[in-house]
Design brief:
The structure is a homodimer of 458-residue chains. Chain A is of the alpha+beta class. Among the domains of chain A are: 99-217, Uridine Diphospho-n-acetylenolpyruvylglucosamine Reductase, domain 3; 223-408, FAD-linked oxidases, C-terminal domain (Vanillyl-alcohol Oxidase, Chain A, domain 3, 3-Layer(aba) Sandwich), CATH 3.40.462. In chain A, 37% of the residues lie in helices and 20% in strands. The interface between A and B is large, with 87 and 87 residues.
Chain lengths: 458, 458
Amino acid sequence: MSRSEGLLARLRDGLPAEALLTDPDVTASYANDMASFCPAGTPAVVVLPRSVEQVQHVMRVATELGVPVVPQGARTGLSGGANASEGCVVLSLVKMDRILEINPVDRIAVVEPGVINATLSRAVNEHGLHYPPDPSSWEMCTIGGNIGTASGGLCCVKYGVTAEYVLGLDVVLADGRLMSTGRRTAKGVAGYDLTRLFVGSEGSLGIVVGATLALKPQPPQQLVLAAEFASARAACDAICAIMEAGHLPSLLELMDRTTVKAVNDLANMGLPETTEALLMCAFDTADPAADLAAVGALCEAAGATQVVPADDAAESELLLQARRLALNALEAVKGTTMIDDVCVPRSRLGDLLEGIERIAEEHKLTIGVCAHAGDGNTHPTVCFDAGDPDESRRARESFDAIMGLGLELGGTITGEHGVGVLKKEWLARELGPVGLEMQRRIKEVFDPLGILNPGKLF
Amino acid sequence: MSRSEGLLARLRDGLPAEALLTDPDVTASYANDMASFCPAGTPAVVVLPRSVEQVQHVMRVATELGVPVVPQGARTGLSGGANASEGCVVLSLVKMDRILEINPVDRIAVVEPGVINATLSRAVNEHGLHYPPDPSSWEMCTIGGNIGTASGGLCCVKYGVTAEYVLGLDVVLADGRLMSTGRRTAKGVAGYDLTRLFVGSEGSLGIVVGATLALKPQPPQQLVLAAEFASARAACDAICAIMEAGHLPSLLELMDRTTVKAVNDLANMGLPETTEALLMCAFDTADPAADLAAVGALCEAAGATQVVPADDAAESELLLQARRLALNALEAVKGTTMIDDVCVPRSRLGDLLEGIERIAEEHKLTIGVCAHAGDGNTHPTVCFDAGDPDESRRARESFDAIMGLGLELGGTITGEHGVGVLKKEWLARELGPVGLEMQRRIKEVFDPLGILNPGKLF
């Protein structure tokens, strides 16, 4: 019996037949997430468990045989964090997709990891509640995947990232034991915060099989304003002025000239070609029109050439469409994109955008930037022809140059996409030798055999 | 040369004379924080460093000689977490008290650990900013101590606890190496969240020597409402109704009959003796009077016998005075108090309060409860005569009964005070064997010799 046959036989001991995918054509389709430039191996098998016990069985077998396990959600990640290792068990949690509880008094939801973000968001809406984290992939991505990468989204400038909504977790450890972390309560400080340690750990410490999430009351419908600027620097000045004045926008996004042009070309939206930067700001406060008027005045003071506040939800939605199309539009420019995720203190956003323009010129590349600008979190997106080896090489090099610039400006190499395989060497640079050593030693505590999503992060 | 003389000689190598306290009368005064029933040893020496390098020197010497180190802030803790071990170095961070930066655009402050909470709060106010965490001891306690115990306060129902405001840390490890965690940016997911691991770790993983804190814009002045109820259950029903209706109060506090009576006796505040529970609710929204009117109606629907909304800041302050006096008033009842810190899902608050009444009767004790009710976080406070051994024994037993009840109701043994020495055995019960084992192994990663605040937490 080959090694792979032995693995399958042991897995079958505790799993129904339909939980195992072994057809190589099928399993190969589970090899990658949505990141560019990230190598992936060939899975030995894909397991689709439906219960905690089945996950525990998989991990016991993996520990017994020393086989790597790669946990996956919807594979919408952008750093290769869900890419298969050679000969691994892909552990796809998408069938564990029940919402077990929604409690409006305690403002919590208890869910399995495979619940789609949008499904949960809509379900809690029906109880007058709001689950804020809204990554762009929210119609596809799973809560488990969001927890794995500590996902962000458009709402973070007011509502923060996924990490701030995870109160407690059920985790299957590498050896198959079940551990519960955290709490159902609003507060709690009993011992080290292992919940937060697992959020953003990219499946490298254990398998999240359940989560207790904090919810907010549903806010009023947000109202959006768009402002055009003749330079990226002026738009960034406006952002700094808005935040310095104490505003709490529910969204504060920026698209640079390249992105605006790409959206115009794709969707013929009638955005003026003279726009060098487009800022979008929204409020979901009691009187959003008043807040937008104040922000509009700050934009004009910073040199906005046009300020367009929406009058109602429909107009707001129209303004946001341009932002939603940004990544597709940039992909249409040259066929392939590489999306970065550098976050700097928002006071340095202007320096970052000007630096990225310089890097694009130096590398003779088209780089569009859309940004969760209120957070200083940018997605510089290199548009290139993957069939052109020289352009591909320059794209890769520009990517490194941008991360280097981000660190120089006091930023981080990843605001919300995670490290995966894409940014491993950069993680070491950001953490420094002491931080890296302590992180590796924590990994060893939870995964002494190194079977949990090996080759990611470090 | 004795062991103690050897320690002092090595410490003097890297510290100025004024940084060392060795007079036994003086060092003895550093033995305890403010918890009852917590044993403490006698410090060998108290060190008051003024720089990161001095802290590093202390930790290098402690590692070299295997001497325990107990980090301290203002010693206002309530779980014995800052109590000295026998023969330890007390490392008091109170002289490292500089505010290094306040940045209104990035909404961050960079501070040393010895800064007093109120000093920071007032300093950021001058920039139109707000540092929400407000433990009752905020005029005395330090930010480093707040980080060590992940402190809460009155604001948490809207603004969350200290943990949510710590973006990055500088930490001196057990062996004297300096590690930086986290970031200055609004978002960041580069590697495991070691920042959050340190928050609430009670000085058992390393010495926090610097912190980057998130700030909020200063909210409008809050307006307070007081509501009287004829039973604790009715007050808890009101709390559930307020939260279920989607309100976001900036404060939602509860005092039970015993506490109301104690405050009346102490300060002659004219609170009606018929009051079985007093609820206080505040809003710092754009239109707090409207929010208070809505909440007042919910209180009446739940059976409030009187609802008193304040008209302005001065009246609000007057209403809050009763709450602020609660702990002092309970201490005046019998001379000594033991303050617990059990947190349950807010939907179980009524069950907890009725259970505590039962426990008080069974143990023939006076137990007053004041609670951060919006969070389900109660402070059952046993009033007893420390000179009466039988009453002291019953006080200790009731304390255990209350924690057991809290866990039964799906709660935690500590919402905001931490574990220290007071709740060590209860931590094991809350975490379970797997969780406890993983927590201990994380401790070993950072503190292989077991010299950092030994005997706390586990």
